[in-house]
Amino acid sequence: MAQLDTRAKLAILADAAKYDASCASSGTAKRHSRDGKGIGSTEGMGICHAYAPDGRCISLLKILLTNSCIFDCHYCINRKSSNVRRARFTAQEVVALTLSFYRRNYIEGLFLSSGIIGSSNYTMEQIVEVARSLREDHDFRGYIHLKTIPDADPELVHLAGVYADRVSINVELPTTGGLKRLAPEKSATQIEGAMGKVAHDIADGRDARKRYKSAPKYAPAGQSTQMIVGADAATDRDIVGKASTLYDRYGLRRVYYSAFSPIPEASAVLPLQRPPLMREHRLYQSDWLMRFYDYRADEVRAAADDATGMLPLDIDPKLAWALKFRDRFPVDVNRAPREMLLRVPGLGVKAVNAILTARRWRRLALADVARLTVSIAKLRPFLIADDWRPVLLADRAELRPVVAPKKADQMELFS
Questions:
Q1: Mind listing the pLDDT tens digit for each residue in 115-124?
Q2: Which part of the chain is the Elp3/MiaA/NifB-like radical SAM core domain (predicted)?
Q3: What integer pLDDT is reported at residue 45 of this predicted model?
Q4: CA–CA separation, 188 vs 179, rounded Å?
Q5: Which CATH architecture has domain 325-403?
């Protein structure tokens, strides 16, 4: 095989990393080099693909160390039996690329994952060496996210958190049965065991920081994971339940969902078509309900269709839940507690907080609520205001056509 130059390797390994969705850079410790020491920063505006909760766009060099792999997971484009062009960076090549791109103001951090070469321990050593060299040899203060390997030596996984802002271990698939069928060389027990160890190390690090100010920070941006959606028979109810369990057990910062994408020369056990991208979007919305709107997992799961276990694609999960439990509505915007206001379709967290503040001073009319939301039409059947009571709407047998968003027709390019 012809020797590849750095540009050719980068083209292959950056493209191979596009299936990793979990690269958001939010939540880490603030660092900068304005004092003239070190290089890099975790603050400021970026130019590319990872977004923080406050809207900042953080640019990351997102690559694989190698797309060669000794595993043969059916859903993976880089599996052992896949006929793709292979490439491999050395640890020092990744370090040089990261520093070079930073100095040109292309990036603010690094997201590094890898296929398994040689062994899990050898691969993990190379990943950790990249982060160690950036931090210790070059005093790099930018953001680093490392994908760790669950069956590697626990000490190597621990070192990843010493040098990285965030670490992640992919659970791959929502169910144990799906993992056994599509990735027989991986173990759900081993994956969750490694996640538990990282969660324990993060908790220990926080405790040490409370006792000693000089204690080093361990993975200050926490850990995350990723699930493939649509490669197996798991329903949305299964996925929501799995995500809730992971949040509760391991204190994850994020669970990412990646819609399965058919790959060239795919295994016969995989579906022929990808799931609708809207399904991935609805799962992110359901995740938001659990993280920010105080919904329990069983409440979100109740929004799914009783027969199929799938969330509706034409309306969001919050509206689906409200339509299914109409006996909880309408709620009085001037009296209802925060938890019920958060369940009103069309009201976000900021709007609810503004309502709670405003109603301390006066009673709110429908027009007051309208100023806090994009469209009042969705809210009208679900709330009572000082000048509004939805008598006819609340009693209507079929409410969904009234509140569901109108489906836009695709325009013809050649009419």
A1: 999 899 999 9
A2: 59-286
A3: 29
A4: 7
A5: Orthogonal Bundle (1.10)
